[in-house]
Amino acid sequence: MINLLKLCVGADSVEDLLDWQRSQRPHWPEGRALHVTRMWPKREAEVLDGGSLYWVIKGVILCRQRILDLQEVNLGDGIPRCALVLDHEVIRTEPAPRRPFQGWRYLDPKDSPRDLAPGRAKDDPLPPRLAQALAEIGLR
Q1: 77-93: pLDDT as tens digits
Q2: Strand ranges for the chain from DSSP E
Q3: CB count, 10 Å around CB of 7?
Q4: Both ends of the chain: CA-CA distance in Å?
Q5: Nearest CA to 122 among 14, 22, 33?
Q6: Full-prediction pTM beyond 0.70?
Q7: Contact call for residues 72 and 84 (beta carbons, < 8 A)
Q8: Domain range for residue 60?
Q9: Of 63, 73, 105, 69, which Cα lies nearest the Cα of 85?
Q10: Closest CA to 59 of 114, 97, 111
Q11: In this structure, what DSSP letter does residue 136 have?
C-alpha cells in the first residue's frame, strides 16, 4: 500500500476543503469527490490497496481521504488525465510540515502522519503557522 501527497491549492483550512467539496458534490458521479491530476500513478495497484490522498494545506499535512478508484478523464483537450475518486470522509491527521512541490508525490505509510484520535477530530484547528511550528519541533 502507498499513499499520495498533494497540495490543496486555494484552501486555507480543512474547512475550506470541506466547503469546496460540498459545493462540487452535485457535479460528481455518485456524489463522490474527484480530484483530477495530469499524471497517472505508476504504482496504481499499491494506491488502490488502501491508499489515501494526504492534503497539504498552507505547508502542513492536515487531513486525508481514502482513494477508492482511479479513472481516466478527458477535459475536452484530448489530453487524458487521472481522476482520483475519493471517499467523502475527510479524516484529520496530526499536522506534519511539507515544503512546496508540484503535482503529487508518493507517501510511504511509515512517513504518513497519524490520524487524530476521534475525540480530537472536532477540536478547533490550530492556526496553520502554529501547527507547522509545533510539527517542526516535534510537538504535533
Answers
A1: 888 999 999 998 999 99
A2: 3-7, 33-37, 52-57, 60-74, 80-86, 91-97, 104-107
A3: 18
A4: 25
A5: 14
A6: yes
A7: no
A8: 3-136
A9: 69
A10: 97
A11: H
What is the total count of domains within the chain? 1
Consecutive H or E run containing 9: none
- The contacts of residue 61 (CB under 8 Å, 6+ apart) are 5, 54, 55, 93, 95, 96, 97, 98, 113
Cell numbers placing 51: 491508499
CB 34 within 8 A of CB 28: yes
Q: Cα–Cα distance between 129 and 122 in angstroms, integer?
A: 19
Place of cell 483550512: 13
In the DSSP assignment, the letter for residue 114 is: P
Task: Please write the tens of the pLDDT for every residue from 97-136.
Answer: 998 899 899 999 999 999 998 766 555 556 667 766 776 7
Given this model, what pLDDT does residue 76 score? 83
